[in-house]
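ok so dumb question maybe but i'm new to this and my supervisor (M.) told me to 'just get the structure for Tup1 like transcriptional repressor' and walked off. so i did the thing. is this what she meant?? sequence i used:
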Amino acid sequence: MSSPDATTDTTTIPLGDIEPARSRHAGRRSAVALTDELIVVGTAAGDVGAYERSSLDERWTAEGTNDETSVVAATPFAGGVAVGERGPAGEIRLHDAATGRTRWRYVTADDVGEPQKRSRFFLPFVVDVETSGDRLYVAARRYERDGDDRSFRSVVYAFGTDGDVAWTYETDASPIGLDVDGTERSDGRRAAGDEPNGRVAVAYNRCPGDHQHGVVVLDAETGTVQWQWDPGTAGQRRVGDVSLLETGVAVASHGDYRGYRLGAGGAERWVVDLATPTKVDGETLYAYPNHVHATAEGCVFVTGNTYPEEGRETASLHPGEHTAFGYSPDGECAWSASVGGFAGEIAASGDRVAVPCAQQFRTRDPATHGLHVFDVQEGRRVEHDAEGIVTTVAVDERSLAAIEEPVVYHDEGQRRGAYRLHAGGL
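this is what came out, is it supposed to look like this??
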């Protein structure tokens, strides 16, 4: 188990008032991104605000227009900040970084369909936004249910700087994340056997329909499928996350609770057990690997909640739940560290990985609320405690920014924390 080198000194500002989270997770409703000069926040009220990195003074605010909408994804793009919503329109927008003015917008509900119900999990959802050069890549989905039958409609988009759609890739599966690489290697060359440069890797966590691949790697320029991969397990659950490497990808598998390193074309290089079914107090328990970040120096996987093979409730915990695992490039476990609670996302910059920690809904221990920063090779480096739950984070070589949300556990009734932005140096 790794020990932290330091805690972060942060500056904090309030973001208004929202309904507190409860014991169980309600899904994403906030976003944060870093530009050279700004911290940009997307809120549960649908607003987008920009704050000076040095002082947290407000630069501008773009108000939301719909009470049902929250801003759940954000990234710098083309001299602005691209944001994605969960809401009736599932809108994507590009805000000018200097003024907040909307330069263009796109309604994904026109493609994925109108919500079956006007409740949170049925609303069109912009899952992820990523950039590379002059392209913005977006994954959006919509969920519906008929009795026990679940179905999805989803689209991966490539946008130009003016908001024109360069290509789309549509499926009946549920995308959970994207990773994108650039059009050139850092040394400007391609080694023999390298895959074509310019890739978009898409992770699909549920595949209830015709699409049966947990990972799809697309050509970034054309949207053409380069190759596909699946853990080959029964059921709808497939992949929690994917991270591109110079050749191949690393995968957090929902299907068999393992971590994979795949080479060119999806050839398996190594596989490791992360939170596979384990007997604890007479029950067989497992946990989903939800996140992965990989570099040439190694891979970091992060696992989520414990579940029993029979039913949904258990009083026991899987020994590998809510854990960050660091693996060397050849698949040897270098370190592991508890993150305490559920991480709805991670953020990374080079070999640095930031993990926001929300509630552990089975033990409901507020001491686990906080933020952890790991080095791919060395493990835990920095941690920051929070009164409420930390739900989203952005990190670069200079600093980090994270959003805390209030929480009320169902068996306590006490409100912990507040809706606020934390920002600090590294």
